[in-house]
Every structure is written in structure tokens, then in C-alpha cells.
């Protein structure tokens, strides 16, 4: 049962199972494709209602994730700045997602992280398995969020590392191959951290708040990186690359690998809208934390990944969240008579634990914080 997992490790808040949980046999999806004429194992075949309907009609331009020109926020004249701030707030209210262009992050960092990520996934299985993601944990190589033998599996291999604060690091999980892996992750993550802080300050301004509110509230923000590798799949109509979920973070920064297939989809007005990759852009999304802090004004939107028949796909994902000690709840400035409080106050460490000890299931994790109208009476 899930309660078997809910014992946080006192050192780093990382959940560790109190006793082994039985997740059954998990096939490595990269190894599956090496087997000739392989049928999709039953554990990957989704129930009919969950299967991705593969879009055949092109999306209208109105159905595209908004694009934010970061250079206008950093160096624009007052008109450009104001226009971009308005666009930012509309994106967060209507989409919960936006793509950032001209973010100022060195292209060599963008390319390097992709290269070491791809090189890592191309290593022999035995090499990657030196860094196993233990059942019920979220760092290392494997499949996260699997808690039972009968749970459907995602068509994806993950490799994840906690980065900041330092005590969440597990040095045994830092790969020695590819050679430049660790150094590249460090360099990339430092720059992404600056970007997250900068985006949060613009989000604050877009809400009419002091630009440093989030920064001051979060303390030493938690940062983690996860690389998702989705091999090509002979039956993309039957499987999911990544189950529908919203992110438990404050902000998520997602880099889509060059030449990767289109795979990320977000739930917008009840339809799954693909996020078309823009070269060198970063995809940003609002996580559960910002949804709670803004009392639901900025949305943590449900998303998933689908696979492709011929092409594989790599995504590099950074999660940026408040320190575990942070107490969260809707900010007073964003509540009034017409906008009553929709979420309770809670500790972010508790929420984190709740998030990582349950399977990914749409926006279910956020139920933890919801005040239902009945209770609010
Ligand atoms: C995630 C995520 C989507 C993708 O890792 O939380 O939503 O395209 N990834 O890999
Ligand atoms: Ni996500």
C-alpha cells in the first residue's frame, strides 16, 4: 500500500520505502526494441480510454502554446516590456505553459546537455543499471512513480538527479560515463537556476506583486533534473510515453531534444494539444506550487508525452520548487470576496512526499491541497 512509502528519510526528505514494495518486472523499453518482432508487453498497453488518439488534422495557430520573447523582458523598452508581461500573465492563466525564446542561455550548454543525455541513454544497460532508481524513489535510472505490480508502465526511460540543496544529492547515482556528464549537468543547471529565478520575478510582477516575493518565500529552492528518453515505439497508438500529470514543482523548464519527434501534449479545453518544438526554445510550465500560491489564477496544467513510430525523443527537464520547510497557501493579495480561498495551507516537504509516493494521475496530487466548496462553507 502507499502508506508503506510514506516514511521520509530524515536526512533528505526523499521517501524511502519502509519495506520493499512489489512493482513486478519492469521491461527496459530500450531493450524491448532489440527483440525482433516484439509485441508490446501487456503492461505497456493502455486501457482504451487512456490511449492517445493520434492527431491527423494540423492544429490551428490559435491552438499553439504562447511564445515569450525573454529579451523583451530583460532589455525591452517600456512598451515591449509591458506587452510581454501581459502576454506572460495571459499564458499562465489560459495555458499554464509557454515557450521562451531569446532566454540568453548559451547554446553550447543547450547542446552539451543534450549530447551527454543522449550518450548516457545509449550506454549498455549494465552501465546504466549501476545507478538504479530504487522502487519508490525518484533518483537514478529507471521508471519513477511505479508502486504496484499491475500498474501500467510508460514507454520511457528516465534518469534523474537531485541537485539543490546539496543534501538531496546521492553521490552514488552520479554517472562516471559519459565522461563530461556531471560537469555538464552542473554547468547547465546553474544557468537554468538563474533563468527560473528570473522567470519567477517576472511572474510576480505580472501578478502585481513585489518582484522578489517568490524568491524570499522559497528559501534555498529545491532543484532537480530529469532526462526522459522515449524510444521509437512500433505501436504509439497503444502506449503512453509519460502518463498524464501536473508537475509538483513551482516551475518546470523543459528542453526538447533537437531532431526529436513531437511528443509533449497538454490538456487544453479538453483536447490534447501538441507542443511544437521551436529550435533552442525552452518550454516552461507552471507547477502545482504556483497554482496554489496564486489561488488558481495561474494554472498547473495537465500534460503527457506520446511516442512516435520511427523517431525517438529526448527531453531534459528541470524542476524548481520551494525549500521543503516552506509553508504554502494562497497569497492574501490574490484572494477576496469574489475569489475565495481554494487551497489549504501546507508544508511543501509534505506535499513533495505526497507527490512522489503516488502514481502520476492527472491533477490528482493537487487534491491534497484543495478546499472543496462544501468544506469552505
Ligand atoms: C515531466 C514531463 C514531458 C516530456 O518530466 O514532468 O512532463 O515531454 N515531461 O518529457
Ligand atoms: Ni511534467
UniProtKB/TrEMBL annotation:
InterPro entries: DIOX_N, IPNS-like_FE2OG_OXY, IPNS-like_sf, Oxoglu/Fe-dep_dioxygenase_dom, Plant_2OG-oxidoreductases. GO terms for molecular function: metal ion binding; oxidoreductase activity, acting on paired donors, with incorporation or reduction of molecular oxygen. Coiled coil: none annotated. Keywords: Iron, Metal-binding, Oxidoreductase. Residues 220-322 form the Fe2OG dioxygenase domain. Belongs to the iron/ascorbate-dependent oxidoreductase family. This is Fe2OG dioxygenase domain-containing protein. The lineage of its organism: Eukaryota, Viridiplantae, Streptophyta, Embryophyta, Tracheophyta.
Amino acid at each position: 500500500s502507499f502508506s508503506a512509502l510514506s516514511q521520509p528519510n530524515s536526512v533528505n526528505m526523499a521517501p524511502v520505502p519502509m519495506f520493499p514494495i512489489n512493482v513486478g518486472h519492469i521491461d527496459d523499453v530500450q531493450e524491448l526494441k532489440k527483440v525482433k518482432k516484439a509485441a508490446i508487453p501487456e503492461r505497456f498497453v493502455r486501457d482504451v480510454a487512456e490511449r492517445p488518439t493520434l492527431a491527423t488534422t494540423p492544429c490551428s495557430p490559435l491552438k499553439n502554446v504562447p511564445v515569450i520573447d525573454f529579451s523583451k523582458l530583460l532589455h525591452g523598452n517600456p512598451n515591449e516590456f509591458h506587452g510581454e508581461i501581459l502576454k506572460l500573465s495571459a499564458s499562465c492563466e489560459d495555458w499554464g505553459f509557454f515557450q521562451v525564446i531569446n532566454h540568453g542561455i548559451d547554446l553550447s550548454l543547450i547542446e552539451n546537455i543534450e549530447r551527454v543525455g543522449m550518450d548516457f541513454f545509449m550506454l549498455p544497460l549494465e552501465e546504466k543499471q549501476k545507478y538504479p532508481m530504487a522502487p519508490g524513489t525518484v533518483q537514478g535510472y529507471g521508471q519513477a512513480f511505479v508502486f504496484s505490480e499491475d500498474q501500467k508502465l510508460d514507454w520511457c526511460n528516465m534518469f534523474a538527479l537531485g541537485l539543490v540543496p546539496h543534501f538531496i544529492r546521492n553521490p552514488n547515482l552520479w554517472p562516471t560515463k559519459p565522461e563530461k556528464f556531471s560537469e555538464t549537468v552542473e554547468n547547465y543547471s546553474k544557468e537554468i537556476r538563474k533563468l527560473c529565478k528570473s522567470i519567477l520575478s517576472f511572474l510576480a510582477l505580472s501578478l502585481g506583486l513585489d518582484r522578489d516575493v517568490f524568491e524570499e518565500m522559497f528559501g534555498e529552492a529545491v532543484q532537480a533534473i530529469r532526462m526522459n528518453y522515449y524510444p521509437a515505439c512500433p505501436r504509439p497508438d497503444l502506449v503512453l510515453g509519460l502518463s498524464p500529470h501536473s508537475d509538483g514543482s513551482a516551475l518546470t523548464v523543459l528542453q526538447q531534444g533537437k531532431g526529436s519527434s513531437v511528443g509533449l501534449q497538454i490538456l487544453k479545453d479538453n483536447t490534447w494539444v501538441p507542443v511544437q518544438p521551436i529550435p533552442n526554445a525552452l518550454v516552461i510550465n507552471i507547477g502545482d506550487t504556483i497554482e496554489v500560491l496564486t489561488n488558481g489564477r495561474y494554472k498547473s496544467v495537465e500534460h503527457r508525452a506520446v511516442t512516435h513510430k520511427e523517431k525517438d525523443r529526448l527531453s531534459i527537464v528541470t524542476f524548481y520548487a520551494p525549500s521543503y520547510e516552506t509553508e504554502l497557501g494562497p497569497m492574501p493579495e490574490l484572494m477576496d470576496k469574489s475569489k475565495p480561498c481554494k487551497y489549504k495551507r501546507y508544508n511543501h516537504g509534505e506535499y513533495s512526499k505526497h507527490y512522489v509516493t503516488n502514481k502520476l494521475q492527472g491533477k490528482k496530487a493537487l487534491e491534497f491541497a484543495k478546499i472543496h466548496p462544501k468544506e469552505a462553507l
